[in-house]
Fold EthD domain-containing protein.
Amino acid sequence: MSSGPFIVVIFITRKPTLSPEEFKDHWENRHVPLLKSLAGARFPLSHRRHYLSRDPSAPDYPLRVLVGQLKDFDFDAFTVVTFESETAFKEFVPTMTRPEVLKDEDRFTVRRKMKAVIVGEINIATRDVTTSILAVAKASDLPLELVTITSSQAAPESYRKLNPLGKIPTLVTADGFVLTECIAIAIYITSQSRAPTLLGATKEDYACILRWMSFANSEILPSLGGWFNPLIGRNSFVQDEVDGHRQATLQKFQILEDHLASLPPPPAQDRQDIEGGVEANSARYLVGGNLTLADLFVAGIASGAFMFFLDTEWRERHPACTGWFRHVAGSKMLEDVMGKPVLAEKAMPSVPPRREE
């Protein structure tokens, strides 16, 4: 039984008698509120809906697949649902199968075509520290052969010969050069890339980039892990310690908020509105007014916090940090390696992990 964050993807086909607009309106304004009212505290951490835009109107337009066969698989929308654990998912299932929920699904979907894919448990820590490395390498067409090491405890002896601590990541080049520590690897990969400006335009920029990368790796990540890991059973749960890590994490994000809010606003023509009414802009980056490795690295580490803890209420009170994260995490460089950013609707509760009886 997995204990970590658990993801389920559900594919929905709209009822043919409804227009795409009517289908979306029913799901957003009737079905989701119904689920929330019935589930209460058992509603998932996040429930993000994505709607397809096809011509002619779905579901008649044939889908294309790269691998495999469709076999009557068509859909007009899908939702990515994140739970704090597999147990939390199983506790939500009875809500999904209640008669009033099934009856409402029949009003706007073709329920027999609905498909749910269990993605399963995810490990946010490994992804967070490697996101910027993978993003820069992919954007610059730098070939990287990936070997997965799930944790330092599970690292094989062959890996420990390269990295005695068994930590993640480790880089081994074709000519045998071995490099450990995520910041060093990120800088090395970026220095080989097509975007040298990611390392700043001046020595001062470069120093500030290192500052924010170090801040995220040595300040945000340990406190975030100290808050998150006990909630999913990876570490022992001690309430005072969890509360302390929670307070420390929020304090670190307040530092980010204060820094970003202190930057001069961009010209009006450079502003753009994004989901939720938060304003993101292309000028408010961590260093020098341009996208740098600092933004990619810090956003990668911050993604776990936004996925599980920094909920709607927090984001409304921290518009600068929220706008920066949405803008950077929504950039093509990061989306290509970690997908669209997932934002928690409600914070993961700071309580011991629920166990299946």
In short: Strands lie at 6-12, 46-51, 77-83, 115-121, 170-172, 178-180, 271-273, 279-281. The chain is about 45% helix and 10% strand. Residues 55-63, 269-282 have pLDDT under 50 and may be disordered.
